[in-house]
Amino acid sequence: MGPTLIQALDVKTLIVVLAMGNAIAVLLLLFDTKKVSSVFDSLFIAGRAFELGAWILIGLRGSVSDLLSFSIGNSVFFCGIALQGLSLVSLEREPGRTWFISFASLLALILAAWWFPGAGRIARIVVASCLEPAFFIIPGSLLTFSADDASPLRKFIGITLLLCSLSSLARGAHIMVSGSYDLIAPNLFQVMVFLIRILIMILGSTGYILIRKEEVNSRLARASEEKNLLFKELQHRVKNSLAIISGLTSLEADRRENAGFRGSMEKVRDRIDAVSRLYDLMSAEDSARGVRLDLYVKDLTEHLLEGYSSSPGRILLEFGLERIEVDAKTSMAVGIIVNELATNAMKYAFPEDRRGKIRVALARREGKVELEVADDGVGAGGNGIEPRLDGEAAGLGSRIVSMLVQQINGTLSRSSTGGTAVKIVF
Questions:
Q1: I need a surface site. Which of 11, 35, 48, 414 has the fewest CB within 10 A?
Q2: How far apart are alpha carbons 151 and 144 in whole angstroms?
Q3: 375, 396, 354: which is closest to 266 by C-alpha?
Q4: Are both 203 and 334 inside the same structural domain?
């Protein structure tokens, strides 16, 4: 029943299916490759268009002359598969001049045999059936055997091309042995050949598109990896530069006896270290955009305490930090703000070795981020030492905080009840 059903298929119907399928393939390829098209994409589309025209001419057999339907129709078909074969080679390697010359020479040989004066129809079909598979055998072999790490998709398309080539060779051998050939005759072998043609049309176009997408994704992945490597290298170089500047600042502070100058240089060093620790965190999280602000603020404050607390346990840190991610630019501004506020509290809130606590809180409320640095020390102006940070004082730290709050479009408020608390909302 199976062979009878296959034989019952109308060959002209199969030709119409091939023509329509190639038309759809051309449209799909045009829409899919219009943004990132290469010369080989254009050649593949042209090859499909040639094959579409060929099947239309071949399908008109009996309605037009044999010269147009048989001779010219098949010539156009050979040109189409030559262009497709060269394009399929490009999936595995970049075809140079040698490849173009080779495919052009093979096409010229087929056309010469096809149009050879005095050659009979059967002889022409047999020769063409034996030479035509080379256009698919070459890319099929490259896709199947050239690389051990080739994707399953490439190998599948390669094997499909090889099977299509074998069917064409079998067709030529069958015609040579039988000594007769009728395109429209509904025999089992003829129908099977056309079904294989339909299969290769579907898989060839789909496979070409998918492999091209695979290549684009691979290039994007490589570009992203290279970008990340360059970014990490930039971070590393910036971090090293900041470390050198911080070291030079410390050396300059140590060689001066003026206490005021040394204090100023230490503040500069702390601000540099605040930026440097941001780069440390970004490298650790492998992120070029989002930064965990809670982790950065905690790490920075603990680092500052190590340098300013003369005796362990005298000043305690308390954290109330929600997980919040912001961009690197905002993180840098917030880091320097925290550096100024925390340093201010550690230096001035607990005079004469007084014990105390500094609380750093970070929360998101009503779409805004709230940062609070509070201490239970003597309070602003309580001993005439702790400076104001509301932007009115002449101190550099006050001006820096005020400027950075404006930069992140934030607001600053301050309370001096039971110590000092500075809240920034941005």
A1: 35
A2: 10
A3: 396
A4: no
CATH code of the domain containing 215: 1.20.1070.10
E strand or H helix at 371: strand 368-375
Q: How many helices (H) and strands (E) does the chain have?
A: 14, 7
Residue labelled with tokens 């997408």 = 213
Triad 388, 254, 280: Cα angle to 5°: 70
**Are 197 and 94 in a shared domain?**
yes
Give 74-84 pLDDT, tens digit per residue: 899 899 989 98
Hey, what long-range contacts does 64-67 have (CB within 8 A, 24 or more apart)?
none
- Note the pLDDT tens digit of each residue in 360-389: 888 888 888 898 988 888 776 543 334 444
Token representation of residue 70: 């048989």
Question: Please, are residues 83 and 104 in contact by the beta-carbon 8 Å criterion?
Answer: no
Sheet of strand 356-365, all strands in order from the earlier edge strand to the far edge = 315-321, 356-365, 368-375, 420-425, 411-415
Distance between CA atoms of residues 331 and 44, nearest Å: 51
C-alpha dist (Å) from residue 59 to 35, 53, 62, 198: 34, 10, 9, 15
Q: How far apart are CA 153 and CA 143, in angstroms?
A: 9
What was the pLDDT predicted at 258?
Answer: 63
Size (the chain), residues: 426
In this structure, the number of other CB atoms found within 10 A of the CB of residue 256 comes to 12
Mean pLDDT on 118-137: 86
Parent domain of 298: 289-425
E-assigned strand segments in 177-322: 290-292, 315-321
d(CA 390, CA 420): 12
Decide which of 206, 224, 242 is a domain's last residue: 224
What is the structure's pLDDT at 391? Answer: 39
CA distance 149 to 92: 12
State the maximum Cα–Cα separation within the chain, in Å, rounded to a whole number.
116
CA distances from 329 to 276, 278, 326, 408 (A): 13, 10, 8, 9
DSSP 61: B
